[in-house]
Design goal:
alpha/beta, 4-stranded mixed β-sheet, binds ligand V47
Length: 394
């Protein structure tokens, strides 16, 4: 006799059928979502008001089914992962955002700034029998003394040691900080870093674009327009970028839709966003305290709904990442059926989420990532940072 877990896995194996999906017109009419269903089936753009209706729909599963349809149209049975390494070069930061549990004051316990050698050691020494990474993810706080030349030299060293590996480094916030420190334009910073080997920008620092919430969360950080301008400049230089949204704190559903619409508009203009990553706020060690009921496991369905609405609103951004570090592995796996197509990667060492209280593990192996994907009924596909290299899992 087969164990139940095996049967459950086998039951998911048949490919998605658009005809036999859950998208029953009569049911969506009952939910007053019939116009949205028609648009999703016709692959038409949703309005901000329709996005809000999806947040207010009493049946989150119905919203998830729409997003799953949109995801299956784009990626079919494929679900992506990357063999990567994260490194944070410093937690010294001039910004002091209220939600951040990663930053430390100089002299405070846990304050650090890595040397080039430390960074190379973390990124270039593969564990015995381990795979060489296809992506290096490098971000840090906005350090008041590290100069642009230091970062250029680091990139050049890494390119020499890891030829062929995509270097995804420095958020739009860091780029703006380097420009202010050097007294040069952000586009000049981007071109210099590109010449030194930068291939892509990660999506951090976007937080929430809505000005009032941003003022409360991160008053010292560049504003939405500046973040989007730097992303657009990167795109104009042929540097793709990701985009994030920090959610699950003090933002309203209107703020979420505003964030998604600003990203969608920028993508219409500059076209270089590769992947959207909703970042679930980790509360435990954050100075930003939320009322009981607004954090913790009871937010699980809200996370899935946010992922689904993001997939439906961001019709022009190809990929949506269920970042397992912040969501937890089980929720990230579930999210693959709610509009997400990517799980991020092996990571090895993660600090920003874990210092804030994320209870996920530090690393996942390729075997674990592939198993999580297969047990969700998808085909694991190993990618690099910008999804330009694909390898179907064994
Ligand atoms: O910018 C900070 C967020 C971001 C917390 O582009 C927090 O592939 C939750 O951007 N709870 C950094 N989030 C991480 C990031 C990222 C991660 C993985 C992949 C990619 C990519 C980008 O983390 C920050 C901030 O928005 N963050 N503190 C917190 N307590």
């Amino acid at each position: 006799m087969r164990v139940a877990a095996e049967i459950a896995e086998a039951a998911l194996a048949p490919p998605y059928s658009f005809e036999a999906s859950m998208l029953d017109a009569a049911y969506y009419t009952q939910l007053c979502l019939d116009a949205i269903l028609d648009k999703v089936l016709a692959e038409q753009r949703l309005t901000p008001e329709e996005g809000l209706a999806l947040f207010r729909c009493p049946d989150p599963v119905a919203v998830g089914a729409l997003a799953h349809h949109a995801r299956m149209l784009r990626h079919g049975q494929q679900a992506f992962y990357v063999v990567n390494r994260h490194v944070n070069y410093t937690n010294h930061c001039v910004n002091a955002c209220r939600f951040c549990a990663f930053r430390r004051e100089p002299g405070e316990e846990g304050h650090f700034t890595l040397t080039h050698e430390d960074i190379i050691d973390r990124l270039c020494n593969d564990p015995p029998g381990g795979l060489a990474p296809d992506e290096l993810h490098i971000v840090g706080g906005c350090h008041p003394e590290l100069r642009l030349a230091w970062f250029e030299e680091l990139l050049r060293k890494l390119c020499k040691l890891r030829p062929g590996t995509v270097i995804k480094a420095f958020t739009c916030v860091e780029i703006a900080h380097f420009a202010a420190m050097e007294g040069i334009s952000t586009i000049e910073v981007l071109s210099r870093l590109k010449s030194a080997g930068l291939a892509m920008l990660p999506g951090g620092g976007a937080e929430i674009f809505a000005p009032e919430v941003r003022r409360q969360l991160c008053p010292n950080k560049i504003d939405a327009d500046a973040w989007l301008r730097v992303a657009g400049e990167a795109h104009s230089l042929g540097i793709p970028t990701n985009a994030t949204m920090l959610f699950g704190h003090i933002e309203s559903v209107e703020d979420r839709i505003d964030h998604l619409c600003r990203l969608r508009k920028q993508q219409d203009i500059s076209g270089g966003f590769t992947c959207f990553i909703p970042l679930a706020f980790q509360t435990e060690h954050s100075a930003l305290k939320l009322p009981v009921g607004l954090s913790g496991p009871q937010r699980g369905l809200d996370q899935l709904r946010l992922i689904a609405v993001s997939r439906l609103m961001l019709d022009n951004i190809p990929h949506l990442k269920a970042y397992w570090v912040m969501l937890g592995v089980k929720q990230a796996q579930t999210a693959l059926h709610w509009g997400a197509d990517d799980l991020d990667g092996t990571i090895v060492e993660e600090k920003i989420g874990h210092m804030a209280g994320a209870d996920s593990v530090q690393a996942l192996s390729v075997a674990e990532l592939e198993s999580i994907i297969r047990c969700s009924g998808f085909e694991p596909v190993r990618r690099n940072a910008n999804f330009t290299k694909f390898m179907t899992g064994a």
